[in-house]
């Protein structure tokens, strides 16, 4: 669909538009286009590979990239998320958050198992937030493939980091064993993924070992189709019908890729049977190119918007030059529009209200939701502590509490993300609706063919990329840095301080002894239970504080980003209209000069419109993702 | 049947239950009393029945398959999808019958048929399967003589009612557990598995705090589907054995079960029910050119395709036994053995044909495959840890029932029964051993590392037999000498003023265990 190299036509168009902006003395537009061109440069889709532990996630990643680049083991599981990206030289960098920044450590790719699996790094004691592997594999171009530690292993509370990774992913592959139908936890994971990511697929593994994988796939299809509509944890709800199932065998794919003695025909057959090709196609054709197409549409929109802004001024000037009597009237009308554009910048503008009120409401809603979830955990914990002797059960209790708290926090984060996205879209809608009347009617009326700005007036006002997950996703990615999750993982390490929480320093003597000491033991037991409950409450308070602060910070950041984005857009608009008014007023009295200027203006206009046309064609080739404009015009 | 009762515990427990029955047999028939009566009657009846062993685990862990392997017959139906949806009891009986018991307690005999895949049970026109409480299958089989096996629906199922049935059988709210012992199957030690094991262990704690986590002593964990570990290569079960070993040493699992063993349930089931036709089919396959057969076995799909490569087809066509390995036959083989099973079987058959020794006929193939499946280790563990301690497990179930009744339906005149219960729970050495074992495994007693491990072993942590306790080979002649030596050492430790109180209690118990070994040895 899109054969352009990353620096192809989109970059060229942005460059042309930037030069035009400089030539027409519009540094504001030039700056904005500069941001766009940088955003297009890093155009890789983030794909998460998630699932229960020991489901074959790492093996799947290896099969997709066509070689055993990541360490796999029959017993030891992955403990550190590993991001695979394309690069000329194989290299691995380990990353962890430290006080006031991040620490990076370069290691040899052959030592990876020592750092990212239970073999060398059980429980991820080294505290790495993730590893970044650069591999010379063409399939990785345009992708960042993240292999995550499985949910539910004995050693690590990884389910939480998996959940925290989900928002902002372009695609999520839920990996499940092809030998049995989806379990309740796997279905729940799929549902959460579908709520926050545009592309979700279930990948069944090890079909080489399971003769009945077709039936399992059918049964799973049924589970997914029926799963829509249930909304048990408040994070799902949309149907899972769109979630496709990919039966695969990593073993066959790797066998085909790595056994050089195989006849080419056999290798091809094995590769086809492995089903890995379909997964690759999904990632490359739909996910990576889908993302690229979205980006191209975004670039095209930006260029079109810039061109329209240039053209507006030229058209006004042309109309004024052609009919000097109308010049003043045109200028006055444009001036009115300018005042309207200026009011968009007002703090009292509707979109600003929506944004400020929305963020305020969200802060309190999200905090209430978090408190509510954690309160339930505390209540459960207290009941549990009432029934047992904490000194005996703490070892098992602490991880349980940890997991419950973490689950509560991550569900809250996912929910917050959804609500935030919804808010961002509402703000964009209000901005676009209020701005819809701004465009100077005169220019439209005066265009000879009546097309003028009518092409897509709203795109001028709209946010950069309005498709599902568009606006908020680009905002989020901006905040997360090159790799998602760092934000969350920083918080999770504070939760992990849990291990130090054991309030008991009781000699073993108290725990044994015969029943004659019942009274004394009962008193001691009650004291231990009280101490344990207090420890639980203290811990949950700490977590609530930290998580609450994180979500507030996140929302403030969103608020700032949205406000800056739309304020800048309003300013640009205002500036364009001011230039237009000036151009209309400055009509030369001298006929000869006027005719010469008219020819110049028409030539410039033609150039600008040619650029806009190219951008529109590029957009058309990148598919019609956005039905938003028409909806807004109709509204 | 008369149960062996070496410790006299069953007799003592029967006495306590009888006392409680006399107590609750009189007085008003209010709901609490009739509930107490029914719990006690059940407890009393259980003491005279074989041990009840439940097979539990997550979805598709292979519970029914393993049940068939243990019995040596295909009676529990198995399927690719979720199959067992009701708690089903399989017990030895003179003749076969299936009884459906509804949740309201009513029973009805239902028709059934048996095919190659197990029993097909007709629920008998009950509209709502939710009303069925359990199925009772009477089946004459030597494999069920020692223990009644209870097959349960998978935990973690998307169909939550199925999971609930299992939980309310193993850990009911208002009764003692339906099982005396649990064989817990899992694919890997998942956090949820640990959660279920904790629930099982906890229940046994059931108020009688003195008993500690006795439930762990009746739990054997099976790493099932060992054939799928590491891609189903020939060393899969060996690798799984290493995984099981590491789980045995894992602190999270150690305190929740007796031991962890790896089993390929499918291979075990098939090997124990091997047919002559399957043997000849596998032999024909082993005679065909190896490279082509290996290529065919790269995946289940390849093996079951309509047309195998010409070379294989030729070799099969010219097989001296005239075996026709057509598509349905290959499908059937795959169904019964799995990829790993066929790989293993052809490998041992090839070796047998080459050397003329070892696996050359159907019985020796069955024996070798059973050995490779890991079933023998599981049976040994079951016999030494669970069936061999039948007295302890049954007495515990009965005493917990009495404890529950005394706690929930208290009576002012319960004093003597409560005292006898208390005396038995805290006085019986078998229970002391279990309690201290649990304490040691949970790290509640501080002892030097080697010492703690020896204490665990002498208390029966590796098995209750004399040789196991002393770390000697079975049947060793040195048992008596070693026991005397250990007795002396631990007596010193028990009496040393430097030993902490808790450690001294352990040491005293170890001394008693040593005395028990010597006593048993003398007799």
Automatic annotation (TrEMBL), chain A:
Keywords tagged on the record: Coiled coil, Membrane, Transmembrane, Transmembrane helix
Record flagged with keyword Coiled coil: yes
Keyword Lipid metabolism assigned: no
Ranges in a coiled coil: 327-354
Domain called Dynamin N-terminal: residue spans: 47-205
Region annotation Disordered: where it falls in the sequence: 616-635
Pfam families found in the cross-reference section: Dynamin_N
Residue stretches of biased makeup (Low complexity): 624-635
Transmembrane stretches, start-end: 483-513
Protein name: Dynamin family protein
Lineage, uppermost ranks: Bacteria, Bacillati, Actinomycetota, Actinomycetes, Pseudonocardiales
UniProtKB/TrEMBL annotation, chain B:
Entry superkingdom: Bacteria
Gene3D superfamilies the UniProt entry points to: P-loop containing nucleotide triphosphate hydrolases (3.40.50.300)
InterPro entries: GTP-bd, P-loop_NTPase, TRAFAC_Dynamin-like_GTPase
Domain G intervals: 52-187
PANTHER family: SARCALUMENIN (PTHR43681:SF1), TRANSMEMBRANE GTPASE FZO (PTHR43681)
Protein name: Dynamin family protein
Lineage, uppermost ranks: Bacteria, Bacillati, Actinomycetota, Actinomycetes, Pseudonocardiales
């Amino acid at each position: 669909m899109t054969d352009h190299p990353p620096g192809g036509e989109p970059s060229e168009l942005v460059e042309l538009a930037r030069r035009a902006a400089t030539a027409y003395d519009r540094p504001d537009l030039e700056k904005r286009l500069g941001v766009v061109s940088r955003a297009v440069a890093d155009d890789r889709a983030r794909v998460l590979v998630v699932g229960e532990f020991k489901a074959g996630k790492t093996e799947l990643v290896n099969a997709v990239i066509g070689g055993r680049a990541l360490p796999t083991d029959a017993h030891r599981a992955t403990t550190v998320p590993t991001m695979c990206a394309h690069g000329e030289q194989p290299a691995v960098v380990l990353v962890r958050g430290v006080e006031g920044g991040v620490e990076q450590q370069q290691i040899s790719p052959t030592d990876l198992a020592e750092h990212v699996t239970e073999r060398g790094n059980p429980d991820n004691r080294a505290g790495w937030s993730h590893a970044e592997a650069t591999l010379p594999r063409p399939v990785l171009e345009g992708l960042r493939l993240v292999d995550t530690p499985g949910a539910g292993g004995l050693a690590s509370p990884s389910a939480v980091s998996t959940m925290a990774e989900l928002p902002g992913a372009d695609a999520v592959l839920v990996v499940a064993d092809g030998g049995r139908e989806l379990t309740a936890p796997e279905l729940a994971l799929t549902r959460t993924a579908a709520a926050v990511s545009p592309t979700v697929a279930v990948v069944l593994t090890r079909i080489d070992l399971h003769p009945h994988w077709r039936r399992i796939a059918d049964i799973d299809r049924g589970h997914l189709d029926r799963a829509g509509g249930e909304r048990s944890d408040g994070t799902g709800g949309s149907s899972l019908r769109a979630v496709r199932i990919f039966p695969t065998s990593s073993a066959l794919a790797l066998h085909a890729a790595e056994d050089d003695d195989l006849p080419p025909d056999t290798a091809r057959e094995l590769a086809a049977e492995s089903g890995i090709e379909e997964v690759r196609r999904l990632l490359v054709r739909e996910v990576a190119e889908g993302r690229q197409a979205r980006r191209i549409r975004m670039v095209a929109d930006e260029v079109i918007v810039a061109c329209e802004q240039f053209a507006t001024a030229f058209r006004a000037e042309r109309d004024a030059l052609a009919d000097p009597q109308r010049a003043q009237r045109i200028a006055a009308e444009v001036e009115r529009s300018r005042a309207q554009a200026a009011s968009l910048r007002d703090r009292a503008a509707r979109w600003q209200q929506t944004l400020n009120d929305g963020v305020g409401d969200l802060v309190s809603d999200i905090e209430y939701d978090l408190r509510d979830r954690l309160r339930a955990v505390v209540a459960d914990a207290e009941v549990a502590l009432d029934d047992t002797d904490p000194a005996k059960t703490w070892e098992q209790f602490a991880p349980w509490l940890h997991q419950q708290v973490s689950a509560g926090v991550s569900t809250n984060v996912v929910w917050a993300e959804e609500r935030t996205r919804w808010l961002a879209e509402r703000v964009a809608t209000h901005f676009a609706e209020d701005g819809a009347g701004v465009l100077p009617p005169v220019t439209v009326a005066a265009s000879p063919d009546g097309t003028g700005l009518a092409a897509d007036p709203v795109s001028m006002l709209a946010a950069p990329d309005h498709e599902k997950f568009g606006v908020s996703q680009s905002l989020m990615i901006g905040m997360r840095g090159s790799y998602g999750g760092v934000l969350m993982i920083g918080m999770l390490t504070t939760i992990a301080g849990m291990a130090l929480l054991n309030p008991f320093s009781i000699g073993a003597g108290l725990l044994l002894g015969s029943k004659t000491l019942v009274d004394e033991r009962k008193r001691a037991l009650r004291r231990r239970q009280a101490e344990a409950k207090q420890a639980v409450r203290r811990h949950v308070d700490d977590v609530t504080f930290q998580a609450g602060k994180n979500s507030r910070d996140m929302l403030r950041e969103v608020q700032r980003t949205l406000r800056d984005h739309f304020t800048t857009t309003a300013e640009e608009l205002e500036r364009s209209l001011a230039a237009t008014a000036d151009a209309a007023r400055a009509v030369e009295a001298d006929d000869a000069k006027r005719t010469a200027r008219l020819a110049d203006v028409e030539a410039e206009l033609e150039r600008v419109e040619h650029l806009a046309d190219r951008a529109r064609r590029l957009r058309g080739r990148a598919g019609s993702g956005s039905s938003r404009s028409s909806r807004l015009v109709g509204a | 049947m008369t149960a062996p009762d070496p410790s006299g515990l069953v007799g003592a427990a029967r006495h306590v239950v009888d006392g409680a029955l006399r107590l609750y047999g009189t007085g008003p028939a209010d709901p609490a009393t009739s509930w107490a009566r029914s719990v006690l009657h059940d407890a009393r009846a259980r003491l005279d029945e074989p041990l009840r062993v439940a097979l539990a685990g997550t979805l598709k862990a292979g519970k029914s398959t393993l049940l068939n392997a243990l019995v040596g017959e295909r009676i529990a139906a198995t399927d690719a999808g979720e199959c067992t949806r009701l708690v089903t009891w399989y017990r030895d009986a003179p003749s076969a019958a299936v009884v459906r018991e509804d949740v309201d307690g009513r029973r009805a005999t239902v028709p059934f048929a048996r095919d190659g895949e197990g029993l097909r049970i007709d629920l008998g026109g009950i509209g709502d399967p939710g009303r069925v409480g359990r199925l009772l299958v009477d089946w004459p089989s030597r494999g069920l003589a020692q223990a009644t096996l209870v097959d349960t629906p998978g935990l973690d199922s998307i169909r939550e009612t199925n999971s609930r049935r299992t939980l309310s059988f193993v850990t009911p709210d208002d009764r003692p557990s339906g099982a005396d012992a649990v064989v817990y199957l899992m694919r890997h030690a998942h956090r949820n598995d640990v959660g279920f094991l904790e629930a099982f262990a906890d229940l046994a704690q059931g108020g009688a705090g003195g008993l500690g986590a006795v439930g762990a002593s009746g739990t054997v964990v099976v790493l099932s589907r060992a054939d799928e570990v590491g891609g189903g290569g020939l060393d899969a079960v060996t690798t799984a054995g290493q995984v099981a070993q590491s789980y045995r040493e894992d602190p999270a699992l150690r305190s929740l079960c007796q031991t962890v063993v790896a089993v390929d349930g499918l291979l075990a089931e098939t090997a124990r029910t091997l047919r002559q036709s399957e043997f000849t089919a596998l032999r024909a396959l082993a005679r065909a050119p190896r490279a082509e057969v290996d290529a065919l076995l790269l995946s289940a799909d390849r093996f079951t395709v309509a047309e195998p490569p010409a070379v294989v087809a030729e070799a099969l066509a010219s097989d001296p036994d005239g075996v026709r390995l057509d598509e349905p036959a290959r499908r059937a083989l795959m169904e019964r053995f799995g990829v790993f099973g066929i790989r293993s079987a052809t490998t041992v058959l090839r070796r047998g044909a080459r050397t003329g020794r070892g696996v050359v006929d159907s019985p020796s193939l069955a024996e070798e495959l059973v050995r490779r499946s890991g079933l023998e280790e599981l049976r040994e563990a079951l016999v030494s840890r669970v069936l061999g301690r039948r007295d302890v497990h049954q007495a515990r179930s009965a005493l917990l029932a009495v404890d529950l009744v005394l706690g929930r339906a208290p009576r002012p005149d319960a004093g003597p029964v409560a005292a006898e219960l208390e005396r038995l729970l805290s006085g019986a050495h078998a229970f002391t051993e279990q309690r201290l074992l649990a304490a040691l495994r949970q790290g509640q007693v501080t002892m030097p590392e080697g010492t703690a491990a020896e204490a665990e072993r002498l208390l029966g942590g590796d098995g209750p037999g004399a040789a196991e306790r002393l770390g000697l080979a079975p049947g060793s002649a040195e048992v008596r000498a070693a026991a005397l030596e250990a007795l002396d050492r631990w007596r010193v430790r028990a009496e040393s003023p430097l030993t902490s109180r808790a450690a001294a209690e352990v040491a005293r118990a170890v001394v008693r265990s040593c005395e028990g070994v010597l006593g048993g040895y003398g007799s």
